[in-house]
Amino acid sequence: MELRSVVAWNIRRLRVAKAISQDDLALTAGIERAYVGYLERGKKNPTIDTLGKLAVALEVNVVEFFAEPPEGSQPVAPLKGGRKKQ
Q: What is the pTM of this model?
């Protein structure tokens, strides 16, 4: 899996695991909500600064974004109800 896809997979995985909407993550990290969506779909490459902001907002170490998904992992489903928290 290419690095952009690994980072995208982990951003969504960490956000969904904490039941945080894209809107809330963007607000907490100080970035645009649409940009979070682009990152989670692997359409944009985040800067180190952006990864740092996301790590703080998600309360994780930035290295979490580079963890390879386990073999055979399925894409992480979005939160139920779209942008709303569960």
A: 0.86
